[in-house]
Request: fold
Amino acid sequence: MTLATHEVRWSAGGQMIVDGVTLTVEPNRVLGLIGPNGSGKSSLLRLLCRLRKVASGVVTLDARDIADLPRRELARRLAFVEQQAATEVQLSVCDVVRLGRTPHRGAFASWTEVDEHAVDIALKRVGLAARHDQPWHTLSGGERQRVHIARALAQEPRELILDEPTNHLDIQHQLAILTLVRRLGLTCVVALHDLNLASLFCDRVGVLAGGRLVAFGTPQEVLTPCLIAEVFGVEVVIRESTPGRRHIEYVVEHEAGDHA
Amino acid sequence: MSHAVLKPNWPARFALVLASLVALTLAVTVAVTVGEMAIPLPVAFRALGNGLFGLDLPVSAIQQGVIFDYRLSRALMAALCGGALALSGAILQALLRNPLAEPYILGISAGASTGAVCVLILGAGGATLGLSGGAFLGSIATLAIVALLASGTGGGSDRVILAGVAGSQLFNAVTATIVTTLASAEQARGVMFWLLGNFGGVRWPDLWVAAPVALIGFLVCMMHAKALDAFAFGTDAAASLGVAVTRVRLVLLATTALLTATMVAIVGTVGFVGLVIPHAARFLVGSGHARLLPACLVVGAIFMVLADVLSRILVPQQILPIGIVTALFGAPAFAIILYRARRAP
Ligand SMILES: Nc1ncnc2c1ncn2[C@@H]1O[C@H](COP(=O)(O)OP(=O)(O)OP(=O)(O)O)[C@@H](O)[C@H]1O
Ligand SMILES: [Mg+2]
Reply:
């Protein structure tokens, strides 16, 4: 049952931003969160990581309220990759990935082989082992994203929370990262914008609109033309090339003068 | 834990610590021998032997006094002050995620001097509070005001600097008002000299206050070295790595205020050390705080000892306030940092 929320609410600036969300993330499955800009995806993810306090409701990890867990214990269990995270500090790739070992080490603990191993494995998994010593500032946007994912993996979490991990990635790396996320076999919550990727890689999909969870289920159940039209205001056609392989095509009407 | 421990290359660490101590000792030796009364090295060593180990080597009473009671205490105080201010700068830069943060720019020094001047001239708090107490309260008050101002206006890292500038202007104005309207001419002169920083009045009892504060402050900061590293990508990133963000911030900001206030109370305000030295140290040992913080302590200490020597010999027959010397070197360095910080992506 791992990660679950019950009637979770959070408001900021006098506005209800997450409005009564109840959901359960099944163990070792990937849950995709989709929804328009500003629908509260990032906010909900921050509540899942206890980066914000819920106004009401409860977030539980193994049936325990996460507000009661010690911070470091939570960080050894659950890792978070932010939508965007920048720094002015001069760091190398391995410096960043090493940060992932923070919750595993005491204030004066030395760097151990276990730590080094976790960092190496994490870097290999995102395909950046060769960039070990490259300065962070010289990386491309997509490479930075992958380094952040490696940092999260170095935390050796059982729950992994990713906010738009495919941001900045080229199509090859979008597919590679999401394939990796699936292969890890961790309990994952991923905010995504690409509906096809969501349907391809997620076991369950939750749809947020205006802070409310308006649909939750398998991609087949949830990603229907009707719901997409309602939530995103976009007309789509769904085609199935082979059984189970669904393609969501956007119907765009070109204006008459477009090609003239 | 039973896992094999990697990296702690003890011989290398030991060599580094030794090299730092040697460099610091050299700087202090220079400071002890150079000055209006040039004292040869052997005499200096004899005087130190007498003072430190109770030996009875032949040194004239005047030279003994100059070396031991005047120059040595002064040099050691300069070392402590430089180390503490550089440490504070490194902590503030990490916590506020801004390369321009330091006690002077954030107004902590200005607040400390207002507090000190209140005690000195208005007699606020009487004898119980004392100059250091006044400086400490002043710096805590400024920190609170700057933090409130910054978070009230959106809390970005640029806001903190703007709030700090506003705060230091305000407190400098308050200090100037008190001095010009209420102080006697003699008091005013003394205060202005003190405000620009001055190691001249330092005696051994000052060190018995400053040394423990600097040592405890350093240990507290070292305990949080890993947490400071985790702040690189912001407070949310630190929190998701298991750092108790609010507690760490509170403890370290209070430690910085304590370090700064203690130094300001003894030597007056000294700018730019807290800004420039951490950047120089980062250049030498990298950004990891477990190495950076000790490096700041050592480099800051050496810099300040040498700056104090310069302040005594730059203009013959005259002692420049230390703040002027650090500003002469610090201001251009500040401009370079500003330029590079803006260029970064
Ligand atoms: N601290 C805050 N104060 C005020 N409003 C906030 C705050 N945090 C978020 N919001 C608002 O809450 C809404 C949801 O934000 P959130 O970042 O969760 O959206 P999102 O679904 O992740 O969007 P995107 O797809 O653009 O990443 C937005 O309208 C945002 O402006
Ligand atoms: Mg978002």
